[in-house]
């Protein structure tokens, strides 16, 4: 019996959310006296043996490069085969875009109970109860999974990564992606240095910026912080920024370590997509803006004065 943690990757590198999932899965394994193993579909340049430091003893790699691009049907077939081959009974993956696309399918294929967006280790004192946030983080639910196989996707930034000394064994797993199943071809990539859903820091701006011509200072601050850029919905609706940057209830949902909101009022629909951020900094000229209630730090003032000064100060700190 083992816990199998699915490793998500892009451009040859393991995504940050997977390190959290690895620690989380390894801790579940330890809690339940099980082995902790990882599964990687495709190839990465990162050294897989070093994943042992997150607590897994073995990494199963299906190293066919056809797996390097996510195709849900192809992945589901491969993951089901891997679960059968390894005898895993708990499958853990990150609740990021990949995880959200895969977890329900894995659950259906394996007739397994699923908790999507877990935020804590299961409580096994009476069943197998996993805590998750519901209603955009406004409440919690404790879900008991009582199926033989269990699937848990872990909410990003909800579990502390711990790093030890272990070295994992890397074992090739012979899984063949069926070419007939591959229905997706990547034709383009969203531009930007830091992908929004994976970013540690996000600099976001709203209608308070008055127009697309004023985004230079937002991009400059983001570049200085190695951050991704985001925006409120009206900004994307007005075509000031591309729609893939729109965060909120109807946009991308994110949970970075730091979210800087500039000239955004903090409507409930916006907060629904960002309120799981670890630290929120709000810059708004209206001291009564609702966003200040959700902020860890607030700056009341004109963004056109504050943002360039903030960028300069951060640049000085880096020099
Ligand atoms: P505004 O509400 O116009 O706020 C602009 C802010 O900028 C104000 O607080 C103002 O004080 C401040 N400001 C102005 N000038 C300056 C300056 N010089 N310096 C500093 N601050 C300044 N919105 C989302 O963002 N994401 C969603 O996913 C989303 N989904 C929605 C779904 C539904 C069904 C509905 C009905 C709405 C949704 N909305 C969503 C829209 C949401 O209700 C708000 O209208 C929107 O978030 C407001 O965007 P904003 O804060 O950029 O603009």
Automatic annotation (TrEMBL):
Q: Which cofactor does it need?
A: FAD
Where does the chain bind FAD? 207, 232-233, 263-270, 284
Q: Reply yes or no: does the keyword Kinase apply.
A: no
Classify the source by domain of life.
Answer: Bacteria
Copy out the cofactor comment: Binds 1 FAD per dimer.
| Molecular function GO terms recorded | electron transfer activity; flavin adenine dinucleotide binding
The keyword NAD is assigned to this record: no
**Domain Electron transfer flavoprotein alpha/beta-subunit N-terminal: where?**
3-186
* BP GO annotations: fatty acid beta-oxidation using acyl-CoA dehydrogenase
The alphabetized UniProt keywords are: Electron transport, FAD, Flavoprotein, Transport
Sequence similarity: Belongs to the ETF alpha-subunit/FixB family.
Its protein name is Electron transfer flavoprotein subunit alpha/FixB family protein
